Amino acid sequence: xxxxxxxxxxxxxxxxxxxxxxxxxxxxxxxxxxxxxxxxxxxxxxxxxxxxxxxxxxxxxxxxxxxxxxxxxxxxxxxxxxxxxxxxxxxxxxxxxxxxxxxxxxxxxxxxxxxxxxxxxxxxxxxxxxxxxxxxxxxxxxxxxxxxxxxxxxxxxxxxxxxxxxxxxxxxxxxxxxxxxxxxxxxxxxxxxxxxxxxxxxxxxxxxxxxxxxxxxxxxxxxxxxxxxxxxxxxxxxxxxxxxxxxxxxxxxxxxxxxxxxxxxxxxxxxxxxxxxxxxxxxxxxxxxxxxxxxxxxxxxxxxxxxxxxxxxxxxxxxxxxxxxxxxxxxxxxxxxxxxxxxxxxxxxxxxxxxxxxxxxxxxxxxxxxxxxxxxxxxxxxxxxxxxxxxxxxxxxxxxxxxxxxxxxxxxxxxxxxxxxxxxxxxxxxxxxxxxxxxxxxxxxxxxxxxxxxxxxxxxxxxxxxxxxxxxxxxxxxxxxxxxxxxxxxxxxxxxxxxxxxxxxxxxxxxxxxxxxxxxxxxxxxxxxxxxxxxxxxxxxxxxxxxxxxxxxxxxxxxxxxxxxxxxxxxxxxxxxxxxxxxxxxxxxxxxxxxxxxxxxxxxxxxxxxxxxxxxxxxxxxxxxxxxxxxxxxxxxxxxxxxxxxxxxxxxxxxxxxxxxxxxxxxxxxxxxxxxxxxxxxxxxxxxxxxxxxxxxxxxxxxxxxxxxxxxxxxxxxxxxxxxxxxxxxxxxxxxxxxxxxxxxxxxxxxxxxxxxxxxxxxxxxxxxxxxxxxxxxxxxxxxxxxxxxxxxxxxxxxxxxxxxx
Length: 806
Ligand SMILES: Nc1ncnc2c1ncn2[C@@H]1O[C@H](COP(=O)(O)OP(=O)(O)OP(=O)(O)O)[C@@H](O)[C@H]1O
Known about the structure:
Radius of gyration: 68 Å
Structural class: alpha+beta
Shape: rod-shaped
Strand content: 5-15%
Bound molecules: adenosine-5'-triphosphate
Number of domains: 3
CATH class of the largest domain: Alpha Beta
CATH superfamily of the largest domain: Kinesin motor domain
């Protein structure tokens, strides 16, 4: 009985079987074969196939009589009979009781009944045991399979655990590395923030200096203007004074000549007067002598009269002597007569002389009058001359003053000019610093930079009002552009705006630093966007055969080769690899493939037969195009000939908008690897120069057939580009880079850590104003896009490191 019990289901007092904690092993046991085990209850096994007997629940501690009744009521083949421990124990403890000690018959009947019950019980137990054995067998099988599974799972778990452990170890390592990097990045970030702050401060200071300089410049310009005006007015006055001076000098010389002639006349008149005076004096002398003679004659007459009287008296007395006296008298009389005649004559001549004298006196008076009037005139002239001389002196003085003032002004102007030159120099320096700071800020901000270039009007362009203007305010100078469309003005500001008169050199100067950074290990991407015929190819490629009209690509390459050459002195050695491709109708074409002979070469959908040009980006953000021809280049000459080869292979066509329209996106890539033997440094830069195909309206392009297909493909890829830009600008989680070959190829430039610059080319043609507005709006969106912060690919050279891209 004890050995049998081993295979029996647990009795109510036995400890319940621990349920399996493996869910799957429980699940594997069919529901109808599961049993409930509870205290005080015995649940029979479910039937195993043959009979399906439900176990009923029997209460423990049942009365033996009840048990007996119960058993007696049971059917004879024990079907449906269930025994409990108590029933069995009651059955085993049952005593045969007769009516009396000798009631053997009754006892015998009881015994028979008891044996029957025992048989029934044994049969039930045997069945039960059988069932249990079967079930045990099944359970064992199940247990085995579960064990196998368990072992397998355990094995798997062990393997997984191993894997997980190794992953955990790697993750821990990564974590440590990341933490290290994170702290480094944090430190870098802090340093960058610090330097940004410092640069911000410096920028503010520079802005202040610039503002004060601008103010000073303005003041200086104002001063210069007023000085110029003053100089002009002084010059004017000086001129007028000089004219006045010359007229005065002329007048003076005229007066001098007049004075000379007047002097001459005066001299002549004085001479005449002197002669007349002399004459007069001689006449006067003569007159005086005549007067004297007359007086003496009168005296002698008086004497004679006296003598006559004396003689007459004497006549009386001296009659003898009378005759003589008469004769004397007659003689005397004759003499008197003669003298009288002479006196008369003299008197006549004296009268004549006095008339002449009077005349002469009148003449002299007139001459004296003339003389005095001339003297007066001379005095007046002298006074005038003195005044003129004074004036002249004053004029000379003022001229001298003006001259000194002029010299002073000249000196001031010179000072101002040197100040201006200094200010200009300072402004240029400040502008350089501003640009550098601006670049740094942009680098820290991680924005795509946008330069706008407006091409000049071409003979084929439409005529009308000028639609493009440039603001002149200080903050928008050189950075703003205004577009006029149907009377309303749209203002845009970019990092730089080049007007139609900007030369290729002017444009290159602005990007040369960016190109240089490719040599320093940055990924640089410059692409030109714009309506067809707006000058993208001119900007990127230009006319390489003409030194002045060379575009950015040849100029950038020249700079890179020159700079790499000059860096050899510092121990740098560079290796350059060039590749060129075009995306035409969503298909990549290798422009340097030796199998290509020209644009019309027969190609498969994917380019040259058998080649799969698939784009892939690696973890470092480097782009690889499988099967693409990559050429090692050492000189600018080599690259130039490759560019020529590519230009010949490129798909171009004639459209209504452009004679030589690019029908594909052209991508030039230069990979630069630099190693410094002395410092063990390594840098890996990439320069991507991209000339996009021009956007155009189908209605305007007038395209049909293949051209229409091309135009649709171009517009689709450009619309994918704008979708990407919009998603980036909105910082959406999903950016649809994979929607076109162009956007997928540009993914590291648009969403990565490269330095990216976009040229938006604009046509000034009034009929293209709609397209220009679209381009400018798109460019403004691009300018607002944040990409990653440019990262330099530089490291210390590992002992066996090699170039890893190609
Ligand atoms: N800055 C400029 N100075 C002088 N000529 C220019 C300038 N920009 C463009 N052009 C002239 O304008 C015409 C169109 O320019 P270009 O072919 O570069 O345009 P595009 O934008 O590349 O057009 P597409 O997208 O159709 O290829 C050319 O004849 C070019 O020489």
